[in-house]
Amino acid sequence: MKLPLVVIVGRPNVGKSTFFNRLVGKREAIVDDKSGVTRDRNYSEVEWAGKIFRLIDTGGYVPHSDDLFERAIKEQVEIAIDEADSILFMVDARAGVNPVDIEIGKMLRSSNKPFYLIANKVDSESFEPSAAEFYKLGVSVVYDISALVGRKIGDLLDDITSNFQLVEEKEEDPRLKLAVVGRPNVGKSSLTNALLGYDRSIVTDIPGTTRDSVDSILKYYGEEIILIDTAGLRKKKRVDESIEFYSTIRTLKSINECDVAVVMIDASEGFEKQDQKIIDEAVKFRKGIILAVNKWDLIEKETNTSKKFEDSMKDQLGSLDYIPVVFISALTKQRVFKLIDLCKHIEEERKKVIPTSELNDILLPEIERSPPPSTGTGKEVKIKYITQAAGKYPVFLFFANYPKEIIEHYKRFLEKIIRRTFGFEGVPIVLSFKRK
């Protein structure tokens, strides 16, 4: 069942993101007092009275501007309106009718899409008369609400969803979810746009231009794949703006919600400590991981250039050398679809289950040939049985007589045997030791 798509539009600083967060129930969009802080469209799902719809938050619409960002936002808003089934046109009741409000109203009428005029910041009955001014925009109903305190939002939602179908209990989305993560300006939005074929995020040469995470759907040979294009993770000393603080949190959230994280590396800058920190977060969340070395088209190449670059990164990765490396150019689309094929392969690896009999047949003889070191008191440590636990990522249970005495070096030895025998390319695996 296709969910209805509802988009929030309005000029800057009328409270669109506060309203979005009120409906979604969490701090999804970046909200700041600074005008124009929501620069990309932000998607989420909203459930009301058994009905579910998709909601898009947009940046503040400024029709005639020479500002680079405001022109880009204008294009984004127009795309969102084209995608929408219905539109929530938000105005500031306290500020009164603005010339930009009038222009947006004209644009919405010409779109032939149903829209609701929402006068925000009516925190109490005393502000209701100011909302009445907006009837001059030619609408039959003005919804006076307060996104901040939640006033009259239930009545508005009743009307918005009146023609929406009831949805059966929501099941977990089976589609592959990819998070595109990395430092600012490594080409995350350019990669998403290359895959989708149109500008889904604001793309400029200025680091940090994608401040909110943005989800999109890629149709790949008949299969739907969800792409999460995220704000860049900045070095801690550079996260000094409240906007960047929220963006960093959101990027970590995107890693948490994906199946496979595509960690983008800038070929011209090489592998940096911040890249390692991003990878460590993906490992912590047990996500599939790929390193995508972007801007490879700009590198002067000799024989074995890519191998030397990859070997250098693998040396820095240490025990994480199971993570595959792909050299791409988001600009020329070089190998970007090979990247998607590899993501699909890694998700299959992540779901792979090894039969218990096979695990024991392979691992126990290896353990017998190279047993774990004895305990500090000289007692022999014996691993008796191995099985793979059920779950969303690979967890292997080792049953032993002294599980707490098995040292880290030996655990890495066991992991290498598992990877050498069974694969699990790009997938963090967990080894858990229990008493038997």
Structure description:
This protein is α/β, with parallel strands linked by helices. The protein has three domains: 157 residues, P-loop containing nucleotide triphosphate hydrolases (Rossmann fold); 175 residues, P-loop containing nucleotide triphosphate hydrolases (Rossmann fold), CATH 3.40.50.300; 80 residues, GMP Synthetase, Chain A, domain 3 (2-Layer Sandwich). Helix content is 33%, strand content 21%. The chain is built from twelve helices and 15 strands. The protein has a six-stranded mixed sheet, sandwiched between helices. Strands 8-9-7-10-11-12 form a six-stranded mixed sheet, sandwiched between helices. The longest helix has 16 residues.
Task: Describe this protein with a few key phrases.
GMP Synthetase, Chain A, domain 3; 3 domains; 21% strand; Rossmann fold; elongated; 436 residues
Main beta-sheet annotation: 6 strands, mixed
- What's the architecture of the largest domain, going by CATH? 3-Layer(aba) Sandwich
> Based on CA inertia axes, which overall geometry fits?
elongated
Distance between the termini: 49 Å
Fold blueprint:
Elements: E1 5-9, H1 16-24, E2 42-48, E3 51-57, H2 68-83, E4 86-92, H3 99-111, E5 115-120, H4 128-132, E6 142-144, H5 153-160, E7 176-182, H6 188-196, E8 214-220, E9 223-229, H7 242-257, E10 260-266, H8 273-284, E11 288-294, H9 305-317, E12 325-327, H10 336-351, H11 356-369, E13 383-389, E14 395-400, H12 408-422, E15 430-435
Parallel strand pairs: 1-3, 1-4, 4-5, 5-6, 7-9, 7-10, 10-11, 11-12, 14-15
Antiparallel strand pairs: 2-3, 8-9, 13-14
